[in-house]
Specification:
The chain is of the alpha+beta class. Helix content is 32%, strand content 22%. It contains 20 helices and 25 strands. The N and C termini lie far apart (76 Å). Magnesium ion binds next to helix 2.
């Protein structure tokens, strides 16, 4: 093994930079935090090429005196704490004195600043950690930092960076977090000279949320507040009809700092338990204020996580505040009533009360209503007859279900039904969710939603090989407001979405224009569809393989277009489903892996009734 050596400072700094600076968004966060710590009332952020080429943050804060320039970019140099005890009194966002040094080590940095008392501004260039000469220049009071070609001298790290759109998405998210945490400050965000956000100072918090995340969400927010000793909690939570399948929309702030906290996320999930489907996550904007000495903010490289002295108490405070609020708020009044005949048998908790979440109450997607399925597998519904009569009056059709497994276990790879010439199969719908039909060997119980979803999925999968899925032009293209990160994501995956029949164009700011939508989902509201798509795009937080993504979106589309548990089906619809059963290559499991049918063999029934 080679001899042990002290690493030279420039290597140490590059290593240290790796912890704090992961991508352009990390630079944006650090520079914005410095501006806020310097008492700025206005912070302007501009990036080029998603921050890969340039990041510029200008503020009107106190500025840096010329004799302190060198220290500002040196590691472990800070004006914010003096000794270790100060860590528990820290009222600033920064305190480690390493952000600028880290950034300077891996970029071309230009620092320009003027203090309130200084008669001139100065600038200093630092390239890969090497400082140039301090030069006087003209500039207003405040500080501007420009960071060019991040990771130019660590090519491997630069290679890890993603596309412009993805990096811009992260930048916008970093900006959003700080802008939400500091509503009293005027912020702007520009990308390639395009103004993405202009957030005036001093508007109510709800207005800031509205500007960043749109009116639809802002209108669904409920005010919550609570004080427990020295801990104050205040903010907004979304009513349960607005949710996500991830926790990224759970904005939690502690003393002006955006934080992630598993325990608090758990408290949120608990508070919404019974109000949301499993797997859905609430949306929140909550701000905690507490004395700095009851929380350790020095436990995570980017200060994203903190450690509370009495985490249990804060957990209970959050859970208690939300529960009390939900008990005293008529949540159902915010949800839309269930359509006739829908809901009584569904498992959604609000359906039990006769109410359904707005996002679940899309127009009933009946077999007779989805025109596009006919494009994929045309069927002519047999004349409808009352089901009871069908069962009693008509002879059973020739053997259709071959060889079923001899147990109650989910059906194995039994050969699918094939009904000749559209001959009706006797079948009964029960509880508006299961279809029961006979096999020559016993009875089969089918989950109507799971089967339909599987059929559609198989059809779509075949269909997409031949070219883009049929789409329908909207009469009037529909603009949809998104967050900057969401808009970036959608635009990045434009081509894939086009294959699915969803045509999208950027429309300035964070708005995208939807030009067409898949015929199959013509009844789904454009906004709702886009929200679903975005969730799939964001799932897992990694860049999915194009094929996986396509597959995921096909699952989503088939699930959305399929009849639901709770939909009462007319006889022709039941027949159509059963007759298309053979179209599904693996009709026994829906795309989510749940079985589509259970087979009860006659032998098993005989045994249960003690006939054998
Ligand atoms: N925009 C700014 N306006 C005024 N002073 C600044 C600005 N940016 C940095 N400074 C000064 O430079 C010092 C170093 O900044 P840097 O971000 O590296 O460290 P820090 O903010 O003290 O701690 P941390 O590493 O936790 O962010 C700060 O302590 C502050 O005194
Ligand atoms: Mg800092």
């Amino acid at each position: 093994m080679p001899a042990i050596q002290q690493l030279p400072p420039h290597v140490v700094n590059k290593i240290a930079a790796g912890e704090v600076i992961e991508r352009p968004a990390s630079v944006v966060k650090e520079l914005m935090e410095n501006a806020l710590d310097a008492g700025a009332t206005r912070v302007d952020v501009a990036v080029e090429q998603g921050g890969l080429e340039l990041i510029r943050v200008s503020d009107n804060g106190g500025g840096i005196a010329p004799e302190e320039f060198a220290l500002a970019v040196a590691s472990h140099a800070t004006s914010k704490i003096r000794d270790a005890d100060d860590l528990f009194r820290v009222g600033t966002l920064g305190f480690r004195g390493e952000a600028l040094a880290s950034i300077a080590a891996v970029s071309r940095l230009l620092l320009r600043s003027r203090t309130r008392t200084g008669d001139a501004a100065h600038e200093l260039e630092v390239v890969g950690g090497q400082s140039g000469e301090l030069m006087p220049c003209g500039a207003p009071v405040g500080t501007t930092l420009e960071v060019r070609t991040l990771f130019f001298n660590t090519p491997v790290r630069r290679k890890f960076l993603k596309s412009t759109q993805t990096e811009l998405g992260h930048v916008a998210e970093a900006f959003t977090r700080l802008a939400l945490a500091h509503p009293g400050i005027h912020f702007t965000l520009r990308h390639n000279d395009r103004l993405l956000h202009e957030l005036p100072a001093g508007e109510p918090w709800l207005e800031r949320i509205r500007r960043l995340h749109g009116s639809e969400l802002a209108d669904a927010l409920i005010w919550v507040e609570s004080t427990d000793g020295e801990v104050e909690l205040a903010g907004y939570v979304a009513d349960p009809s607005h949710s996500r399948n991830h926790t990224r929309m759970q904005y939690l702030f502690l003393n002006g700092r955006f934080i992630r906290d598993r325990a608090l996320q758990h408290a949120l999930a608990e508070a919404y338990r019974g109000l949301m489907l499993t797997g859905r996550q609430p949306i929140t904007y909550l701000s905690f204020k507490m004395p700095p000495d009851v929380v350790d903010v020095n436990v995570h490289p980017t200060k994203l996580e903190v450690r509370f002295q009495d985490g249990g108490r804060i957990y209970s405070q959050l859970l208690g505040a939300l529960r009390t609020k939900f008990l005293s708020t008529d949540l159902t009044a915010r949800l839309q009533p269930v359509g006739a005949g829908v809901g009584e048998a569904t498992h959604e908790p609000w359906a039990r009360n006769g109410w359904r979440g707005a996002e679940e109450s899309a127009p009933s997607r009946r077999l007779d209503g989805y025109a596009a399925a006919e494009l994929f597998a045309p069927w002519s519904p047999p004349a409808s007859a009352p089901l009871e009569l069908t069962l009693l009056d008509r002879p059973l059709p020739p053997a259709s279900w071959e060889q079923a497994p001899a147990s109650f276990a989910p059906a194995g790879p039994a050969p699918p039904t094939r009904v000749e010439g559209g001959h009706p199969v006797p079948a009964l719908q029960i509880h508006n969710r299961y279809l029961i039909t006979a096999s020559d060997d016993g009875i089969v119980v089918i989950d109507q939603h799971a089967l339909h979803e599987r059929i559609l999925y198989e059809q779509l999968k075949k269909r997409i090989l031949a070219g883009p899925i049929e789409s329908q032009r909207l009469l009037v293209p529909e603009p949809v407001d998104l967050s900057a990160a969401e808009a970036a994501l959608v635009v990045e995956h434009r081509e894939t979405l086009e294959q699915l029949g969803l045509e999208i164009q950027p429309f300035g700011g964070d708005t995208v224009l939807v030009l067409s939508q898949p015929v199959l989902l013509a009844r789904v509201k454009v906004k709702e569809l886009l929200a679903e798509v975005i969730e799939r795009l964001q799932a897992g937080g990694r860049a999915p393989e194009r094929r996986d993504l396509l597959d995921e979106l096909l699952h989503m589309m088939s699930c959305k277009a399929a009849v639901k548990a709770g939909d009462r089906l007319a006889a022709p619809e039941i027949q159509a489903l059963l007759q298309q059963r053979h179209l599904a290559e693996d009709a026994h499991h829906c795309p989510h892996g749940r079985p589509t049918a259970l087979v009860f063999t006659r032998e098993e029934l005989d045994r249960q009734f003690r006939r054998i």
